[in-house]
Amino acid sequence: MMPNHDEIVSDAMHELRYFNQRLKNLSEQLSKEIKVDEIGNGTPLNANATHADQIRTISEGILSLSQLFTTRLHFIDIELNPEVIQDLPVVPVNIFGKFDKARRMLNSQAKGKKVKVKFAKPECIVNDFEAYPIIDILPYLILDNAIKYSPDKNEVSIEFDVYKGLLEVNIESIGPYVEPEEIENLTKKRYRGKGAESLSVTGSGLGLHFVKYICNLHNIDLTISSKNPFCEYHGVPHSVFSVKLKIPLT
Questions:
Q1: What is the greatest pairwise CA distance in the chain?
Q2: Rounded to an integer, what distance in angstroms lies between the CA atom of residue 156 and that of residue 143?
Q3: pLDDT category of residue 105 using cuts at 50, 70 and 90
Q4: Rounded to whole angstroms, what are the CA distances from 170 to 31, 184, 209, 217, 231?
Q5: Closest of 171, 205, 173, 200 to residue 15, by C-alpha
Q6: 126, 162 in Cβ contact below 8 A?
Q7: What's the pLDDT tens digit per position in 178-202?
Q8: What SS3 class is residue 31?
Q9: Which DSSP letter does residue 38 get?
Q10: What is the pLDDT of residues 218-248, one digit of tens each?
Q11: What residues are paired with 67 via a beta bridge?
Q12: Which residue, among 215, 207, 217, 170, has the nearest Cα to 187 in the 3D structure?
């Protein structure tokens, strides 16, 4: 089936506007930290260790988001013309590093909700695997989704397990309960679970769809699950939501 160009452009514009808003927020934070209103006054930039660290973190976020723009544009090319994937470079990728980068990029979003992202480096060495550049967006989409749907003051955990020739990444968070018959639909374009629809959380139903697309492209086994609900938040049943990746290593 030929891709629907209007739909692809509409989806891309939605994602790029979201990235642009986050880029704008980080730029405003940086402007405040370095006091851009004093440019031209000859005022020296004074920063203690903590302040300097904040500036570095914000700068890293801006750089990372600009890279996501490029990745998303690659995605548009592939959706419009799947054969273009043959022309994209395949490079060694350290998936732990990609998740660590995504975690730092989403740090301000997590802090805003007082959500703690529990992240531990594997004890053993994690080998690289061969991937296309669009792999950059995979950890970002998963963690963004987990933080966005997590109730305030909760936790998102990321665990790494290495087997022979295989890296397993398990991301768990508290989120709206998803009934068993809904699980398969979560990766369908524009589908949102009933629980998610009931909350006042902005979403387009594209995040997990793109996650599935990228996983299929790289032979990554993706498993999504939602355990039995154990609490309610704003009248919506919540449970432990899990995204598990099994990544073949080189």
A1: 64
A2: 8
A3: confident
A4: 36, 18, 18, 19, 22
A5: 205
A6: yes
A7: 888 899 998 888 777 777 776 766 6
A8: helix
A9: G
A10: 999 999 999 998 888 888 889 999 999 999 8
A11: none
A12: 207
Q: Point out the least confidently predicted range of 60-64, 85-89, 153-157, 198-202.
A: 198-202
> Do the Cβ atoms of 115 and 156 come closer than 8 Å?
yes
Supply 218's token pair: 């790289």
- Amino acid at position 149, single letter: Y
Cα–Cα dist 26/89, whole Å: 30
- Say which residues have a Cβ less than 8 Å from residue 122's Cβ, sequence separation at least 6: 96, 160, 161, 162
> What are the beta bridge partners of residue 232?
237
Look up residue 178 and give its amino acid. Answer: V
Q: 116: helix, coil or strand?
A: strand
All residues at 6 or more sequence positions from 192 whose CB lies less than 8 Å from its CB, including other chains: 203, 205
Place of tokens 């020296």: 44
Chain Cα centroid distance, residue 56: 20
Residue-wise over 211-241: b if at least 16 C-beta within 10 A, else e?
bbbbbebbebebebebeebeeebeebbbbbb
Helix (H) or strand (E) holding 209: helix 207-217
Helices then strands, counting H and E runs in the chain, come out as 8, 8
In total, the chain counts a number of residues equal to 250
User: Which helix or strand (DSSP H or E) is residue 241 part of?
Assistant: strand 236-248
Task: Say how many C-beta atoms besides its own lie within 10 A of residue 14's C-beta.
Answer: 11
Q: Looking at residue 200, what DSSP letter applies?
A: S
